[in-house]
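sry for the spam today, last one i promise. struct tokens for design, 79 residues
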């Protein structure tokens, strides 16, 4: 099943498969998400999902049950 992923603030849209790692989707879309530990504990890859939930992109896959997801990227100059 395909899910339409929209990355903000650049308004980049791409199709992704359920279960595909979010970092892989972002890379395919040409969207940069900073990473640190790649285990979720350093919070470098924190993004906002659907305007409410903060998730770690490095440990998150595209979830089932939705046709569209909006991901708001944070800008942290330390990363």
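last one done:
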């Amino acid at each position: 099943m395909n899910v339409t992923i929209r990355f903000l603030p650049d308004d980049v849209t791409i199709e992704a498969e359920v279960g595909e790692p979010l970092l892989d989707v972002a890379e395919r879309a040409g969207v940069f998400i900073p990473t640190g530990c790649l285990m979720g504990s350093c919070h470098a890859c924190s993004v906002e999902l659907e305007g409410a939930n903060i998730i770690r992109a490095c440990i998150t896959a595209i979830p089932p049950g939705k046709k569209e997801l909006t991901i708001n990227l944070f800008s942290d100059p330390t990363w």
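Residues 43 and 56 are 7 Å apart (CA to CA). ok im logging off now
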